[in-house]
């Protein structure tokens, strides 16, 4: 599993792991039923604490992305990807609402805001 941890990021390490695994599941890179590395193995590969990987796996399980079977390991959940996608859309909507509120308070026009979004979305 290719997970990249950035010490320069303001996100905690467990959140970096969680978001990257979620992205892999949503994109289909990790298909339903795929086994995830054990918490110890992932911690060793990333050179981080097992407590950190446990926190990431706990959050992924809570959010319905993975299932953990005692003695067997953690696997990509067989949940409905449409529900997961809907949750991600809701999160995007929340962030966009904050951006719209900031734009309105700052006098940024709709056209300027959409130009910013287009540049950000296209990686420019």
UniProtKB/TrEMBL annotation:
Signal peptide: none annotated. It holds the Pfam family GntR. SUPFAM superfamilies: Winged helix' DNA-binding domain. Gene3D superfamilies: Winged helix-like DNA-binding domain superfamily/Winged helix DNA-binding domain. It comes from the Archaea. Keywords: DNA-binding, Transcription, Transcription regulation. Residues 11-79 form the HTH gntR-type domain. The lineage of its organism: Archaea, Methanobacteriati, Methanobacteriota, Stenosarchaea group, Methanomicrobia. This is HTH-type transcriptional repressor YtrA. InterPro entries: Tscrpt_reg_HTH_GntR, WH-like_DNA-bd_sf, WH_DNA-bd_sf. GO terms for molecular function: DNA binding; DNA-binding transcription factor activity.
């Amino acid at each position: 599993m290719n997970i990249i941890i950035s010490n320069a990021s303001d996100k905690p390490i467990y959140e970096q792991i969680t978001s990257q695994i979620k992205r892999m599941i949503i994109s289909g890179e990790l298909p339903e039923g795929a086994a995830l590395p054990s918490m110890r193995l992932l911690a060793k590969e990333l050179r981080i604490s097992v407590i950190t990987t446990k926190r990431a796996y706990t959050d992924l399980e809570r959010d319905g992305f993975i299932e953990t079977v005692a003695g067997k390991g953690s696997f990509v959940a067989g949940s409905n990807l449409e529900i997961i996608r809907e949750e991600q859309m809701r999160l995007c909507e929340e962030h966009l609402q904050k951006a719209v509120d900031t734009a309105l308070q700052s006098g940024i026009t709709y056209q300027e805001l959409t130009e910013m979004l287009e540049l950000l979305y296209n990686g420019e």
